[in-house]
Write a structure and sequence with these properties.
Structural class: alpha+beta
Distance between the termini: 56 Å
Strand content: 35-45%
Number of helices: 3
Helix content: 25-40%
Strand order of the largest sheet: 3-4-5-6-7-8-9-10
Largest sheet: 8 strands, antiparallel
């Protein structure tokens, strides 16, 4: 009889551990507050395959829309801070390609993105040698950031 109760206790312990979700500042991992989810639907109708991550106090959604891969960052209240769409390297401004060629000799751009801030400001990002190299809308270098 003791073995039976021990078996049940161990099974319940393992089972509840498998069902538990990590909690981060009161939010379940992979889930955003309702206001943030509503903001995603409002700003990006028709988005699908949404994956949420918490970035400090903000929430980032990675998703698909109209066949494109995007991400968007929101405050906890659902205010859109910026969005990012993956683009082809050839869609980067020519000055970005020139800068990378001159400053990262022999390296290739692994990924490229167009970032739109809430203010409407456009930036470009080129991932080179595990470093995100940021440019303004005219393709002028802003900064680099290690991944």
């Amino acid at each position: 009889m003791k073995q039976y109760f021990l078996f049940i206790a161990v099974s319940l312990g393992i089972g509840s551990g498998c069902l538990a979700q990590k909690v981060d500042n009161g939010a379940k991992k992979g889930v955003a507050p309702k206001a943030v989810q509503a903001a995603l639907v409002k700003n990006f109708p028709g988005s699908s395959a949404v994956r949420w991550d918490k970035e400090d106090k903000n929430y980032e959604a990675d998703f698909k829309q109209n066949g494109k891969t995007l991400s968007a960052e929101f405050t906890g209240d659902g205010v859109l801070l910026e969005s990012e769409v993956t683009i082809k390297t050839s869609e980067l401004p020519a000055s970005v390609l020139k800068y990378v060629k001159e400053h990262y000799k022999g390296a290739t751009i692994k990924e490229a993105a167009k970032i739109t801030k809430a203010s409407g400001e456009i930036n470009y990002e080129a991932e080179v040698n595990k470093t995100d190299v940021m440019f303004d809308a005219d393709g002028k270098f802003i900064k680099e950031q290690k991944d």
